[in-house]
Structures are given as C-alpha cells and as structure tokens.
Specification:
about 290 residues; alpha/beta; Carbamate kinase; Archaeosine Trna-guanine Transglycosylase, Chain: A, domain 4; 2 domains; 11 helices; globular
C-alpha cells in the first residue's frame, strides 16, 4: 500500500485498501455496503486497491485467484472494461512460448468450449492464476455486461491503449447489459438449495424469451427447498441454464411438474403460478 500511495501521490490521487472475501459477496447487505464504499471513494478521488482478505478467508470460501475477484468487482461497480494484465499478449491458438506458429486471437465475442480448451494449456509465470482462470474471469465479467481485456502492459501508454481498444492482447466483447446487484448476487454468489430440470421449450423461454418458468416445462427436481430459496435450473443435457428464486416448495413441484396452469391450481395452493418469476431469474448459459 505504501508503494501505491507513493505512486499516485504525485497525481493528487489518494488510495485506500479494501479487503474482501467470498462471504462478503454471498451476503447481499455486505456486498451492497462494499459497493457504496467503492463508489464514495471514487467520488472523493480516492482509488480503491482491492484484494482478498486472506487472514479471515477459509479455503472453502477463497476466490482462488485475483482474476475471479477482479471480475466480480468489475461487475459490482458496473465498470466499462476489465483489464487483466499478464506476461502473455492475450490468448493464442497455442502456447506461444512452445509453439512458434501460435497466432494471437484479437477478439472474442463468445467463450466456447474450444476457447476454454486453448486456454487450458497457456499458463502465466506471474500471479496466482493461469490463462484459464483469466478466461473464466472474462466469462464472469461478460455475463455481468462488462467487456474484458487480457494482455500485456510493459511500456508507458500500454494501459491507456488497453482501455481504448488498442492494447496488446485479446478483447472479450459482450452485448449484455450490466446486471443489478441483486442479480449479480443471484447468479454468482448465492447458494442453490436444489436443482430443476426443464424441457427444451422452457429453456428457450427462460434463456431467450424473457419468460418465467411455469410448472408445465419442468421434468424433474432434486433437493429439498422452500419458497424463497435459490435453485439451479438445468436442461435435459445437464447444462446449467441459470438460477432463480423459487415460489414453490420441492414437494409442490413434484406434484405438478409437467401440468398446465388450471390443473396446477387444483392440486396445490401457491402464492403465484410461476415457479420462478422472470424478475427473480438470471441466465448463466451462453
């Protein structure tokens, strides 16, 4: 922190350290407080220096690397762009240190399994996370509506170039809108208490149609949960579609899965017919 203070003092910018853990993000009031603190520091011309609070974090609740932490914070403050700096000029078709024919990928608009496969073999000699963790961080940022850049910044002006879209690296662009704090918590920090498997029609309605989940589209459920709990929704292939706050208890869904609205009303008494309302839902599938 002394190094940061000395570096920014000449520009009239103060610095302040903020230490966070996964537990902070999991608690909606705590992460909201962190968001307000960061916003106020920026208004006061103070640069937040954010790191993981290693002294209190247990292994099960650690971020594992600063790449993930940076993406979550970028989403939290609705950043214009996340810059992840490393010792490699972005994502290559192969490890450029081993394969001279490797070609740098300039822009990525969707992180496919092929992209992840490429990233799996490209590690970094600095920091706690390799290239794969950086791509995972870019995915988190993109889902939250924040574009990302992964690359080098070794010369004066490199960081500005990265911000302006001319950096030496790979840009991960997204057309998604930024998520509210509530939906960030729902999608990235909540703990699902069960799982619901839906048919293809319900998946399409949730993912692209902006619709709520109705009992007719449900195939099976797992776990014991209650109204107000968060559940994970998957498709018939076991792929995660998203998460949402459920309006039914598990036993109620078992009783009406696959049934139409009128039949549902005859069998169970619930506050609202939607199993998950679209306002309490976040899509996680690309």
């Amino acid at each position: 922190m002394q190094a940061y203070q000395e570096a920014f003092a000449g520009y009239g910018i103060g610095v302040a350290q903020i230490l966070l853990t996964r537990a902070d993000f999991s608690n909606r009031s705590r992460i909201r407080n962190a968001q307000l603190t960061i916003e106020e520091l920026l208004r006061q011309n103070v640069l937040p220096i954010i790191n993981e609070n290693d002294t209190v974090a247990v292994d099960e609740l650690k971020f594992g690397d600063n790449d993930t932490l940076s993406a979550l914070v970028a989403n939290l403050v609705k950043a214009q762009r996340l810059l992840i700096l490393t010792d490699i000029e972005g994502l290559y078709t192969a490890d450029p240190r081993k394969d001279p024919s490797a070609v740098r990928i300039g822009r990525v608009t969707q992180i496919s399994e092929d992209i992840m496969a490429i990233a799996g073999g490209a590690g970094s000699t600095v920091g706690t996370g390799g290239m794969r963790s950086k791509i995972e961080a870019a995915r988190i940022a993109m889902r939250g509506g924040v574009s990302a850049f992964i690359g080098q910044a070794t010369e004066p002006g490199d960081i500005v170039s990265g911000v302006l879209g001319r950096g030496r690296g790979t840009y991960f662009e997204t057309s998604e809108h930024s998520l509210s704090t509530k939906k960030q918590w729902l999608g990235f920090h909540s703990s699902p208490q069960g799982r619901i498997t839906v048919d293809d029609g319900a998946e399409a309605a949730l993912q692209a149609g902006g619709k709520s989940l109705l009992p007719a589209g449900i195939r099976t459920i797992e776990g014991e949960f209650h109204p107000g709990d968060v559940v994970e929704v998957v498709n018939g292939r076991g792929e995660t579609v998203g998460r949402g706050v459920v309006n039914y208890a598990a036993w109620q869904i078992k009783a009406v899965a696959g049934l139409g609205t009128e039949e549902v009303r005859k069998r169970v008494e619930v506050a609202r017919i939607e199993v998950i309302h679209r306002d309490e839902w976040v899509t996680l599938k690309n």
